[in-house]
Design the sequence.
């Protein structure tokens, strides 16, 4: 969703994960863990670039959230980019087969001239008199590096 509109869908995130086949004992013999490999794919539905920030990826299993520090901050080209974020997590062995979803903190801003103008006006309503800071913020978003596909050795 665009931050300035609850009706503007700018893209989609999907995640995939699988057991990597490795295990370890975390804090003693009664705490086995399984290594899980994950990947987040992003789709930009717009015809222009999109600033994308992803933080705090979590796999959800059995009512628990298993956190990762994996992040991305980049400009997403139109279309699909596989593996915008990828990594591994050590998951309690009893939860590894019960992973049923994911969460990630996300923020996206359309970088088209119109998208930036809408977002600028939205921010000015929240922070009147901060035009210079808002313009600098938008310039930083536009200058973010392109999103790269992160490849993993254990593909899905």
Sequence:
């Amino acid at each position: 969703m665009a931050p300035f509109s609850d009706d503007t869908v700018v893209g989609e995130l999907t995640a995939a994960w699988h057991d990597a086949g490795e295990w370890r004992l975390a804090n003693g013999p009664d705490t086995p863990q399984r290594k899980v490999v994950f990947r987040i794919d992003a789709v930009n539905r717009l015809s222009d670039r999109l600033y994308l920030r992803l933080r705090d990826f979590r796999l959800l299993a059995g009512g628990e959230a298993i956190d990762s520090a994996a992040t991305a901050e980049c400009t997403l080209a139109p279309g699909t980019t596989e593996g915008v974020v990828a990594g591994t997590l050590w998951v309690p062995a009893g939860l590894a087969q019960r992973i049923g979803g994911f969460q990630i903190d996300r923020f996206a801003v359309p970088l088209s001239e119109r998208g930036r103008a809408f977002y600028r006006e939205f921010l000015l309503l929240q922070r009147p008199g901060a035009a210079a800071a808002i313009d600098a913020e938008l310039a930083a978003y536009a200058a973010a590096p392109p999103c790269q596909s992160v490849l993993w050795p254990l593909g899905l």
About this structure: The radius of gyration is 18 Å. The helical segments are 93-96, 113-126, 131-143. The domain at 11-143 is CATH 2.60.40 (Immunoglobulin-like). Residues 29 and 98 are 21 Å apart (CA to CA).
